Amino acid sequence: MPDGGPSILDVRDLKTVFRIRSGEVHAVNDVSFELAPGELLGVVGESGSGKSVTMMSLLGLLPSPPADVCGGSVTFDGQDLLKLAPEGLRKVRGAKIGFVFQDPMTSLNPVFNVGMQIAEPLRKHMGMNKREAAVRAKELLELVGIPDAARRLEDYPHQFSGGMRQRVMIAIALACDPQVLIADEPTTALDVTIQAQILELMKDLRDKLGMAVIWITHDLGVIAGIADRVMVMYGGQVVEHAPVAELFGNPKHPYTRALLTTIPKISGEREKRLTIIEGQPPIMTAAPSACPFRDRCDVAIDRCAVENPRRYDVGDGHDAACFHVEGAHA
Amino acid sequence: MLTYTIRRLLLSIPTLLFIAFVIFMLLELAPGDPMANMPLSIPPEIKQKMREALGLGEPWYVRFPLWLNQFFVVEPQYWIDNTFGTNFADGAQRIISFNSRSPVFDTISERLPQTVWVVAMSYVVGVLIALPIGIISAYRQYSVFDQAGTFVSMIGFSVPPFFSGVLLIVIFSVQLKWLPSIYDTTHVVNSWDSFVFQLRQMVMPVMVLALQTTAQVSRYMRASMLDNLGQDYVRTARAKGMSESVVVMKHVLRNSMIPVITVIALGIPSIFGGAIITEQIFKVNGLGQLLIISLQASDIPMVMTITFLLAVLIVLMNLIADILYGILDPRIRYD
Which of A226, B9, B160, B209 has the most CB atoms less than 10 A away? Predict the structure, then answer.
């Protein structure tokens, strides 16, 4: 859904640096993206590419110190989230932007029953009393497909399976009808059948509730199935960004191309070995002054080592940060 | 939970009987003679008669059941008689101290108030100080407050009460003359002034003991809080928009209290036996001091009874700790 009217979330030049004893780690470097209402934006990248840190920076969820969100702007609902006081930010978290985390086994508090954990944001943000919150919590559990919802409100997280816990997490994130849902690898810790169920559920919920979703994953297969637009991250930067069909059909950045070749094919002859991208992703100890992918890139040129490519627009909402893109030499 | 509690209570009966047997046999095998403090002018054969009069002529398999009978049947009967004016005991033989020739439970009940006032109070004070210190130290890890807390804990762990107690006496009693150095156990609280005096004489022993409790419990609390502050559910609570006070004092604290409760509950028995040195320094004649005197005098019934009461307390506190564990942590269900 590119060019779908005014964006609901507009991130510009976001920078996050971890200041640790042994130096600095530049985890997010000038990341910009926007999100239209009702859109599902997929964010892919290897571990350590800055996907999660970017999203947590938006809402101030990183522990500070060591994390320091030191630049950029995050416009949501007419205000810059980075400039909001902690109390203002808390009014956004959970109420207007919901968060689903990776590991459902540890993301719920083990000593409180799920009814209480779902009711908590309802009572805080919507001003509901205990009874109203319990009614709404039951509706939410039904919405995310947990059978016998009324009885299960009394249950504790350890009495739920992993998939069911992730449903509870989604119910918590959806509790206050958020405009944006950020899902940080919500299916990574689940087995594939449960993963498929959660994906179906999310597609279904998005159609029902009309919220925008940011879906972080390292699984391109998942992205192909649900995303409208995809953002590929590497070394804390956005290296390519395109509508989903365009990205899979016409990848411009060598990293994206490499990622796509690593997906094993289920048709044709079986490969002897899985395809890999040689080398390790970089640890950014300083702000990038060169292309972070150059050491692993098969088309790197001299210019890659002296200049960090900006994101060159190739049309149709597609851009890539590579000097080989048409128009980059202009 | 109820069936679990009942099962545990029933199981504790054989445990306690075994403990009683072990204590009895240890005292039986230990050297020592209750007549050792008698004047040397008493002829040996008279001393032997006196020993037999104390019941020491009988073998252990006679005396041990007798003690059990006295402890579990006769003494409760006397207690009921005293409370309700009945006459179940019917003049049966109570457990008599070799030393004072008075019933041991009379002596224990004389000593108990001092111990409760000073030692139990110090434990409560120590825990109440330790919990906030532990919480703040963890939440502001490596801050000045945390460093100070670590330093105080180190002192609490490493400075023994016979040093810190004497130091306090030198400073506050000898130099500043603010507080009395001796705990007056005959003091009766019946007015505001006497209450203030009671507080003043309690301050130093309570603080000496509380320092040790604080040192220990605050460390446990800090470690437990740190463990939990890094957990994913804390991030979830923040992502829900909960305020920091809710995140820390509700989500994190509830989880952190689980191991700390055990430490606190299991420490309770030690406050009755473990304050011996402090009681000596401040002349508080509590249970700890009574135990020491009785040991020195080979007052076997007294030692046996006090030690066994401590064992009962330990078994009971273990049970309470387990039950609290089950209440605080829904993952633990005993039924």
Answer: B209
